[in-house]
Each structure stands twice: as C-alpha cells, then as structure tokens.
Description:
Elements: H1 15-28, H2 41-48, H3 52-64, E1 68-70, E2 76-78, E3 128-129, H4 142-156, H5 170-184, E4 193-196, H6 199-210, E5 216-221, E6 223-224, H7 225-233, E7 237-244, E8 247-248, H8 250-253, E9 260-263, H9 277-289, E10 293-297, E11 322-327, E12 339-342, H10 345-358, H11 364-376, H12 378-404, E13 409-411, E14 418-422, H13 430-439, E15 442-443, E16 445-446, E17 452-453, E18 464-468, H14 474-489
Parallel strand pairs: 3-15, 5-7, 5-9, 9-10, 10-11
Antiparallel strand pairs: 1-2, 4-12, 6-17, 7-8, 11-12, 13-14, 14-18, 16-18
Amino acid sequence: MELLIELDRKISETLQVQIYEQIRQLILSRVLDRGFSLPSSRMLADDLHVSRNTVLNAYERLTNEGYLETRGTAGTFVTPNLPESLLKTTSGNGRSSLPPIRKGALAPLKFRGRIADFPDMSGPPPQIDMQTRSQWRHLFPAKEWGRLMQRRLASEATQVATHRDPAGHVELRQALAAHLAPARGIVASEHQILITNGTQESLNIMARLFVDRDTTVAVENPCYGPAAFAFESYGAKLLPVNVEEDGLDLDNLAKLKFDLIYTTPAHQFPTGVTMTVEQRQRLLELAWNSNAYIIEDDYDGDFRYDGPPLRSLRATDTNGCVIYLGSFSQTLGAGVRIGFMVLPFELIEPAIAVKSLLNKGNSWANQVVLADMIESGSYMRHLRRTRSIYLGNRNNLIRALKTAFDDVQLYGEDGGAHLMWKLPPHFPNASALREKSLQAGVGIYTTNTGDAHDFGGNGFFDRGVMLGYSSLSEKQVWESVSRIFSCVRG
Length: 490
C-alpha cells in the first residue's frame, strides 16, 4: 500500500514533521478511513527516500495522539474510534478549510443526455426477472473460453501490453466476415468491419459522425430507449414513427424529412414485430431518395425459430445506405463487451477515427478468443445449443400463457429472446399489471421500462407487456405465468 506524501527538503520544517502532518491531514479528511492499514515504516521510508527512524518517529507521535494504533505483527492502522469532532477537513494550521470563492462561473455543461440503462426497479429485485436482453448465466461456454484464453496467453501474453488497431483485431474481423455471409447474408471484407465495446458504443460512434443540432433521426415508436437517448444527447431531433402489426408505418415516414433512420427490423424492440420483405424494400427506397443512412440494429438476429433464417436489411441493400450493428451480448453475455459494425466504404476511416478518440480499441484477449471460437466452429455449436434452450423456453412460455388465459395475443414469438403480450381490454393496463406482478415477485416490462421507450400516440401497443425468457429456467417460466395469472384473477 502506498501513501501520497510529498516532502519538500527546501523548507525549514523537518521531514518527520512533514510526514506526521500529512498523514494526520489524510486521516482528518477521511482519505485514510478508520481501520486503514498503513505501509510498514521500512516500506514508507524506502518510498520517501528517508531514514526509517524518521518514519518511526512520525508514526509514534500519531499513535500517542490517538490517530494510529499498532496491532503487533499485523502492522499499524488508523484507529477505529476517532472522535467525530476530529473528522473534519482542516488546514495545516488547524482551521477549517473552506472552498475558495469562485471569481466566475465554471464552463457550462453542454451534455444533455440521460442514463441509458434504466431497469426502473424500486425496492428489491424480483425473484423471477423476465428481462428482455440478457442471457441465462449458465450458458456461457466458460470451459472453452478459458481453454482458448490460456492457449493465447501461453503463446502471446506480451500482446496485452501493446496498443492495438482501433478498428479491432484483424483475426476477429476476418472471422466475422466469414461468419456473417452465411449467417446473415452480409458480404463484406474485414476492412468494412469495426469492433466496438457493444451496441451502445456503436450508436455513439454513429451519433458523433452524423448528429448535430440540425440533424433529424427517425426512430421507432416504441423503441430501444438507449439508442434514442444516444442520438438525443448529441442534439438530434427525434422523429418517432409508430410500429404497426407488420412493421414501421412507412406511409407516415414518407411524409417526414430525416437524415438518419434507426430500426430493429428482424425482431423490433420492444414489440417483437418482424418487418416484411415488402416493407424492407420500401424502407431502402425511402432512405435512398432522402439521402439518408439506415442504422440496422440486429441485436438478436441469431435467434430465429419459425421459418427460414431472415436475411438482414444490410444484405438486401444495393445502394450502400445501411449501417449494420451486431453484438455478442445476447449469445455470449453482456460482460464480454464485444459488438461490431459493418460500414459502407466511405464511412470506414471516419468511424475508425472516432473509435480511436474514444478508447483506441477493445481488449485484445477477448477479441482473439472470440476469433478462435468462430474459426474453430465452437461458437456455432454454442449458438445452436443456446437456440435450442431459448426455443424450449419460448415454447413453454407460450404454452403456459395459453393454458392460463383464454385470450392470448402475442407478437415476436418467431424469434429473439422475448415476446410482446397485448393485454385484453378486460385486463388491468400494462403498468398496473407490472406493479402487481412485481409485488408477486415477477418482473415484467412495459413499453416504457426495461430499456424500452414509448413516445406515446401508438394505440396499437399501449397495452403491451414484454416477457423475456432467455435468462429463465423451465421451472421459472411456468412459475412466472402462474403468478401473473394470480395477479390478473386476484
């Protein structure tokens, strides 16, 4: 343990007194709290380049005055029973230190954003949390991840100390290019792929590239809240476009003037609606005619249960106006912190420049391990296993809902990790049912909670609740519906 003590050998005050006074001030200002273990006298003397006796004498004076105590061979500690009257920040002459009077105002705060992650949970967490964007913790391939990590560290540990390419490790970008072609229909070179710390960083990079006070961004209503808030924090004017039963209200979008479009076409968040092929083509035409880019957030596109896999919007774009965002949070876990973008060629260099200004790149270790998983096929094996478990959970949830309730109107059940349940007119409204469910120990989410944001005015989904199943066991799925049933009937 080190102590920040600065000695001045040019002043008349002895080194012993300087050490004593500075440690005393650190205790009084609570920088060193009660019970803090101080470095040994020998260690502190070495750090400060003074004799050990100088430190011993300072420690002894502090002990005699009640600031420190010795505990035999355990060492020297700040005494745990300092009087409260002493624990006030004081100056060197013992007088209370007051902040100086400011001559003028500090630089005004320009940031106008809000916290993006808002679970909106007051009180203890629910016993069963039907959150929508998390993975069942037991699914993480810990053994395989650890094995590949050990192998890399054994042969390339020195890479940890080296600054990396801000665009991302080339092996991972190459592996992703090979993976995306068959999985999502995206044909792109590794030079079009930028590795990020997740979707939220990808969104911030896009906002920094395109958004100022005059920028208009069309967003879905309801939508993924943290995306809308990211654009808003850079000064964008948000244009909410209602989500309907088959996707965005494109007739309304066509009447608007916009610079960017943010959309989740494969499994709209939060409603779960899938954009039809016809709508996708029309959306691409609207963007092209408006000279606008589309930001496609494919947050859970790897999970498709009914019908053939969906091609991404990026895969059908022939004009180069789609920016594709992907992430491994849903397949591996949010703690891995790896996302990526597939960019049109003209955006590659400016996007890398923004990334380099933010953090100069991601963790080398996580990138190379993920690259090895993709190249070896172990990632696809993990993904198939995860799909199978999610599919089982989805089937159980649908079965449980239809067993408990006569009238069940669901959206988004053909993919993803959550579905939207549109409540019948005779049920409590979405917010009331959420509150009752929380009291029963079950966390369900409305279109204004759980990372979702509703701008209002969309009557089609104003009675919708989101039910996530990816982080639940089979028993929890059935138990959650049983408790919700009690809330509705009670």
